[in-house]
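About this split. The held-out portion is used to measure sequence recovery: a designer receives only the structure tokens and must propose an amino acid at every position. Recovery is the fraction of positions where the proposal matches the reference. Here is one held-out target exactly as it appears in the evaluation file.
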């Protein structure tokens, strides 16, 4: 009687089983990798579909409306960058991008591609699953926050000219709205909640990504770059070798 199970109720459960029955689109041209990912994600209880080139990936994202996309950067036809842009332009969806090198991840962040997480090949399937679960949990939290009645919501945080509205999941700086991905938003809230306090990369990784393995700290650095690019470089200070601190903006 699986058909009778209310998957949306399960998907929004706040405990450790995010988005059972979620659909994950895999855009990857290497058959062995695509098949291995699909098998592993199916074993997790997710539905999967594989697209083998960029245009098929864009088409499948539009048709399937997946919960998340695993997207290889190097694809025949249009590449992963362009696929990411086209998918996000049609409907925001969390994207985990697979890159060939760490510096490629930095380059993608610099271009403002808008993926939520990055993994460099080769990666372990266990880590891929953990990252996807964390990604889906963040999306669930964002959905719950926007569905909460506004009278229960926390008032917006105002720090100088920065206004962070957690109920609406919106950020403004100097009156201008700044569009952040769910991951960028959670990272900003985490930093801004304790101004001038140094947060280690490991702590940020554990709190924001639900992922405690320090090997993923590069992901934190990449998302800090994205926040600086969008919000201004003055808000987040690097504490070399340790982590990052939110610096309240100085009044003009
Ligand atoms: Ca490829």
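Reference sequence for scoring:
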């Amino acid at each position: 009687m699986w058909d009778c199970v209310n998957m949306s109720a399960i998907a929004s459960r706040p405990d450790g089983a995010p988005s059972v029955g979620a659909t994950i689109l895999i855009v990857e041209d290497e058959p062995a990798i695509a098949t291995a990912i699909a098998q592993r994600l199916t074993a997790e209880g997710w539905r999967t579909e594989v697209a083998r080139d960029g245009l098929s990936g864009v088409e499948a994202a539009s048709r399937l409306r997946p919960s998340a996309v695993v997207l290889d950067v190097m694809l025949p036809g249009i590449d992963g960058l362009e696929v990411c842009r086209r998918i996000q332009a049609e409907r925001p969806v969390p994207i985990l991008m697979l890159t060939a090198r760490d510096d490629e991840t930095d380059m993608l962040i610099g271009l403002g591609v808008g993926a939520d997480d990055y993994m460099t090949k080769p990666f372990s399937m266990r880590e891929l699953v953990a990252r996807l679960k964390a990604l889906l949990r963040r999306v669930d939290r964002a959905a719950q926050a926007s569905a909460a009645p506004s009278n229960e919501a926390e008032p917006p945080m105002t720090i100088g000219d920065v206004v962070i509205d957690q109920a609406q999941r919106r950020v403004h700086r100097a009156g201008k709205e700044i569009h952040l991905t769910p991951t960028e938003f959670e990272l900003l809230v985490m930093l801004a909640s304790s101004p001038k306090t140094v947060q280690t990369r490991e702590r940020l990784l554990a709190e924001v990504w639900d992922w405690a393995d320090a090997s993923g700290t590069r992901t934190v650095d990449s998302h800090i770059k994205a926040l600086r690019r969008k919000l201004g470089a003055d808000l987040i200070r690097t504490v070399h070798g340790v982590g990052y601190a939110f610096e309240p903006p100085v009044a003009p």
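Annotator remark: The CA atoms of residues 26 and 240 lie 36 Å apart.
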